[in-house]
Amino acid sequence: MPTRHVRPVRGLRLDDVDDAIELATLYGLVPDEWQEWVLEGWLARTRSGKLASSQCGLAVPRQNGKNACLEIVELFKVVVLGRKILHTAHEVKTARKAFLRLCSFFENERQWPELAALVKEIRRTNGQEAIVLTNGGSVEFIARSKGSGRGFTVDDLVLDEAQELLEDALAALLPTISAAPSGDPQIIFTGTPPSPNMAGEVFTRVRDNALKGKNKRACWDEWSFLAGVDMDDIAAWAQANPSLGIRLHPDVITDERSAMDDETFARERGGVWALEGVAGRAIPWPRWVDCRDTDRAPGRPDSIGLAGSLDGAWASIGAAGLVGDVLEVGAVDRRPGSEWIVAEAFRIQSERGVAVVIDKRGPLSHLIPRLEAAGVWLTELDTTEWTDACGAMWQHVDTGRLVHPGHPELDDAVKVATWRPVGDRRAFGRKSGDISMLEAVTLAAHHAESLAAYDVLDSIL
């Protein structure tokens, strides 16, 4: 059984489930018991005949066989139901592998003549791979991008490698099922928990909505470590890896355990989302805790950053300074609203002579004219500089170069900060909660680093 699972209703019709398993077995694709469980969630119907789950999600560590679940469902839907499917993946090579696997069922005329006889067309052009059948069914394969999927009209949308699914790619793909020929569309998300450097907001949101009951027609299956398990225990490995001993060998996991740190092993082999800050968050919480030093006497800050929450309810001031090669950051002030920022920024700059930094497209951008009118000397970061600053903050935490005193309001911001795509870059996601204190210290840290870079350049020249 999966560690976590959600089904929309009970007392469903499972005829399609049995037929799909029988069809797949006939062609040599025999599902494991855990895969049969997944298929039940994806193919179960209500008494009215509609698919019970309009949105399905599967999260299981790699090499367990999630692709077989997709193959079985796609084979059944296209051959028996004549549905139209759009199969998408993050990478071209992944989409093409899925095409070649499914294509193998229709190309062996000698072994499976009845499937070969159904073929109307097989397109092999790279990036436009498709299997089109005479019964109206089809499966088309594409790699995702901002504009991919436009022009398609399908019954089923498959989103493989969902841990890398960007918001703009999803926006381009969702309309493909809005006029589903069957009148009964379905979306299937499959993947693994996002790592800290992935834009995993979409997959995380799908999971959260299913587990919290926000989507009443959602199906979710997840295999992962239980909280507090011994990660060296083979029983824990088996809980998170349903194919252990079938196609996944314990010796391989033993090697992975010795090569990976706890955080990476928990995510990649343990399927962990639940450890605070490990997956789906911008700054891994265990790394942030490692950077905490409550005994260190803070040096004089070089810069302060000004940031506000997306809804305007809060504003924060954070500080940063370089002491040798160590980047010190800390919280200065956080209050409701943002009007107080102008006077406070002027006071701090006047008394301490520090730089004041702001994101010129951020939530406090409307205060820039007032800050300048009050006499505050501002450094404004553009979008590229801001995304660079966010990436640098993650890197400083990851390498242990950053030190902070453990201020509660800064800690709280780190706990909720996610990533959001900004073109082909990324920045901290503000919709997850008030992250203004993290943004404030990130702005300050970026400028402190810039000052150090200028000093080095001056010494060279």
List the helices and strands and how they pair.
Blueprint: E1 4-6, H1 15-26, H2 33-43, E2 55-59, H3 66-79, E3 84-89, H4 92-107, H5 113-116, E4 119-123, E5 130-133, E6 138-143, E7 156-159, H6 167-173, E8 186-191, H7 201-211, E9 218-222, H8 234-240, H9 250-259, H10 262-268, H11 285-290, E10 303-308, E11 314-323, E12 326-336, H12 340-352, E13 355-359, H13 368-373, E14 378-381, H14 383-399, E15 402-403, H15 408-416, E16 418-422, E17 425-429, H16 436-460
Parallel strand pairs: 2-8, 2-9, 3-6, 3-7, 7-8, 10-13, 12-15, 13-14
Antiparallel strand pairs: 1-9, 4-5, 5-6, 10-11, 11-12, 16-17
Helix pairs in contact: 1-2, 1-3, 2-3, 14-16
CATH superfamily of the largest domain: P-loop containing nucleotide triphosphate hydrolases
Given the structure, what is the number of helices?
Answer: 16
Residue stretches low in confidence (pLDDT < 50, at least 5 long) are: 274-279, 453-461
Physical arrangement of strands within the biggest beta sheet: 1-9-2-8-7-3-6-5-4
Total count of domains: 2
Beta-strand residue fraction:
15-25%
Oligomer kind: single chain
Rg over alpha carbons: 26 Å
Which structural class best describes the helix and strand composition?
A: alpha/beta
- CATH domain topology of the largest domain: Rossmann fold
Q: pLDDT average, as an integer?
A: 89
Strand elements, count: 17
User: What is the first-to-last residue Cα distance?
Assistant: 66 Å
**Shape assignment:** elongated
Q: The biggest beta sheet, please?
A: 9 strands, mixed
CATH class of the largest domain: Alpha Beta
Helix content: 25-40%
What is the architecture of the largest domain at the second tier of CATH?
3-Layer(aba) Sandwich
